[in-house]
Amino acid sequence: MTAAATSAEREAFFYDAPCAFISTSTDGAIQLVNRTFVTMAGYSADELIGRRLWSLLTVGGRIYIETHLAPLLLESGQLRGIALELIDAAGDRIPILLSATVTRGEAGRPTGIRVAMFDATERRAYETELLAARTRAEASDARARQLVRSLQQTLIPPVTPTVAGLDLAAAYRPAGDGSEVGGDFYDVFQIGHDDWIVVVGDVTGKGAEAAAVTALARYTIRAAAVITAEPEAILTTLNDVLRQDDMTTRWCSVVMARLTRDTPGWIVEVIHAGHPLAVLVPAHGRVIELGRPGTILGAVATADLTPVRRSLGPGEAVVLYTDGVTEGRGATGFFGEDRLRAVLEEHRGSANGLTYRLLDDVVDLQAGRTSDDIVIVTIRVPSTAASSGQVSSRSE
């Protein structure tokens, strides 16, 4: 307001302001009010003059004012945007925001309190709706997390199957807190007497679309294995299906192992399609890669796939894994192939021991929060006939 404003204009500004103005003594007794406050409170100006302003608040508000805010106001000289509730003449509660300043005399001693009060009914309604929306969002998020867990359970076998003459173990660890469906998967199933397929795969991306492709890949492999037992033909079928699927442009890397009995051990045939090479853990000696690189599925019309066959004797194991193992990164860098081989060489033994020691090391490197999904499947021929029935059923 400029100095040129008339006394009438200044008076109108006070009495008809869009917010309530109240002037009180230092103990809160009302001395002057504007028409906005009279309308808000529902009392006449005469009924308000001399009444303590704090008496118009709820019981909780009065206690808060008298025990905390009033002493703070007199000490600091001001309050800003305090949320309280006013009780009007009809007994209804009105949400308000209160700001106040202390007036002082020439000696600096408090002489009164000037209060500005805003009706916060609409703001309270907005905050209530915001809180309700947050509650609904949290409930929706909880339902989504449950859906994620249910969906993931359909893509990962609940337990590792029992295979006479083999020691099997598998682990699945979702990235981060596990709240998002990833593209890593594995499967173990029988195609004939002493004839098994073990597959580990990784669909690019995450979320519902990746889950759809994961399901497509997993069940296409099973369906193709009914027609042919040859891993190369099975993965060629999957490549054709991924290329024909117009709903997605996702690619899928796969490592597949076919195991057939060859007493006293097994024959393993391994084939890779754009996937990290499996590793062979002998009973003694160095851990080595097993297989040859191949083309990722879904990328080209004709995938380059080369199966490799090898005898798997007592005490030997093959470990299949996704890139969440070697590409796991911590403060000291990537986990890498060298560390993978070192861990497996140090902890030769049961399939369960190899699998979970490797998983633990990868997770520990990343301080318990993995950056990518992890799948590890270990196939081991027991060292002695007495242990030929040893099977791990632990699952993640």
Total domain modules: 2
What is the third-level CATH name, the topology of the largest domain?
Answer: Phosphatase 2c, domain 1
SSE string, helix = H, strand = E? Answer: HEEHHHEEEHEEEHHEEEEEEEEHHE
- Contiguous uncertain segments of 5+ residues: 385-396
Distance between the termini: 71 Å
> What fraction of residues sit in β-strands?
25-35%
Quickly count the helices.
Answer: 9
Mean pLDDT: 88
Count the E strands: 17
Please, could you describe this protein's structure?
With 396 residues, the chain is α+β, with helices and mostly antiparallel strands. The chain has two domains: 7-119, Beta-Lactamase, CATH 3.30.450.20; 156-387, PPM-type phosphatase domain (Phosphatase 2c, domain 1, 4-Layer Sandwich). The protein has helices spanning 7-15, 35-41, 45-48, 59-76, 121-155, 207-227, 231-244, 336-346, 351-365, and strands spanning 20-24, 30-33, 78-87, 93-104, 110-119, 167-173, 184-192, 195-203, 252-262, 265-273, 278-281, 288-290, 308-312, 317-321, 329-330, 333-334, 374-380. β1 and β2 form a beta hairpin. Residues 385-396 have low confidence and may be disordered.
SSE layout and pairings?
Blueprint: H1 7-15, E1 20-24, E2 30-33, H2 35-41, H3 45-48, H4 59-76, E3 78-87, E4 93-104, E5 110-119, H5 121-155, E6 167-173, E7 184-192, E8 195-203, H6 207-227, H7 231-244, E9 252-262, E10 265-273, E11 278-281, E12 288-290, E13 308-312, E14 317-321, E15 329-330, E16 333-334, H8 336-346, H9 351-365, E17 374-380
Antiparallel strand pairs: 1-2, 1-5, 3-4, 4-5, 6-17, 7-8, 8-9, 9-10, 10-13, 11-12, 11-14, 14-17, 15-16
Helix pairs in contact: 5-6, 6-7
